[in-house]
Amino acid sequence: MRPARVYSSEGIVLKQIRLGEADKIVTLYTPAQGILRAVAKGVRRPSSRLAGHLEPFTHSHILVARGAHLDIITQAQTLHSFRLLRDELWRSTAASYVAEMVDRFGAEQLENRRLFTLLADTLAWLAEAAEPGLVLRFFEMALVEVTGYRPELRECADCRVVLPPEGVRFSAPAGGAICIGCARHEPGAVSLSLTALKVLRFLQRGDATQARRLRLEPWLQDEVEMVLRSYVCHLLERAPRSLAVLDALRRDELTPAAT
Amino acid sequence: MESSGVPTAAPVARLIELFTRLPGIGPKGAQRLTYYLLRVPAEEARALAAAIIDVRDRVGFCSTCHNITEHDPCLFCSDERRDRSAICVVEEPLDTLALERSGVYRGLYHVLHGALSPIDGIGPEQLGFRELVRRVQAGGVREVIVATNPNLAGEATAMYLRQLLVPLGVRLTRLARGLPMGGDVEYADEVTLARALEGRQEL
After folding, report:
1. Which residues are registered as beta bridge partners of A27?
2. ipTM reported for the complex, 2 dp
3. Which residue of A has its CA nearest to B121?
4. A84-251: which CATH number, 3.30.70.100, 3.40.50.920, 1.25.40.10, 1.20.1440.120?
5. Looking at the complex, does the CB of residue A67 fall below 8 Å from at least one CB of chain B?
6. I need a surface site. Which of A155, A192, B3, B88 has the fewest CB within 10 A?
7. Residues of B with Cβ-Cβ distance to A248 under 8 angstroms
8. Which of residues A1 and B146 earns the better pLDDT score?
């Protein structure tokens, strides 16, 4: 049987690229087929019926017609707009980082419902959080978990010895925490305090309800961020583009910090 | 310069190759343009070549508002009849033309040449915010009108401008966002409708 000419899906808009005069290619993350790229025609015109339903971070129900090259979005209806994300600059920047990461870690035509749920939950949390740090750390850890890159945090990722409380290092190429002996032949390894290691293990459990109650000292927040960032950047082979903007806003003190 | 393997005169192949690099033009379109130019009167083709050279050699950026211009300061900035106490901030030079067509605005402009878009790696450093702050600090400006696009990047830019300019004590306004002419309430998204309700006006 030939596949249906039109299909419907729900999805969260990750990004848009301009195409021709008034069209855009919209990238969505869908529960059933992962990343979906489709053309939205005429969305740069003010009278477009689609445009408002396909803005980044919008969770929409869409109707898509199969095209020869790219599929075409014919209808769109907002399910949840995450409107609060648009009302503050640091929220929309953090959400851009989340969207970029899902775009990079996700795959086309590959169902990953846990990743979809993580994306939706993270955007909802970001919309109401007091500061972005904890949300993003929880997201990063859960992201590598649901995409199959779970870092080793119990045993040494190299020699499999149970990690001692002192002298632990973290090495992104090794795939997690390593003991001091193995650190000698992992030149990029950074030291990892016991407290930070415990926070990473706590995040790895993936319990968002408990994570929301977590309060971290600024130095600890920084250490956990540095470790997770080195890990995701290693996996992606280059830094996500939105990181530079995220850092610039923090430098200008336009992002609330952990208290 | 022979990409297709078919023998063509070298200048022809070169022009096709250069046309292909332009946005929206594929190999077939490039061939069609090239062979068209071979058929038209020589003056017409020369005029096109001269226009391309002129646009690159004679057009630059206005040192005040960053709009594209032949003379610095640009036509807007040097026009004494325009209201110098208002600056309208736009993303692209073409946006100034759209606003001029409305015939309502008589103030000055500031062109950012883009909008904040973290996912494309475009942050505050890449855009002309510093020059705008300088213009406001120089005095005489009563109102800054933010006319960035009503999409994610434009909204992010507007929020950044708010944090940048409100401390300077200037009046900061944003173009109204709501239902477009010829639009349809039924098809409007909830963000647009919420904004339209917030900005409703006495009849």
Report:
1. A15, A37
2. 0.84
3. A241
4. 1.20.1440.120
5. no
6. B3
7. 123-125
8. B146
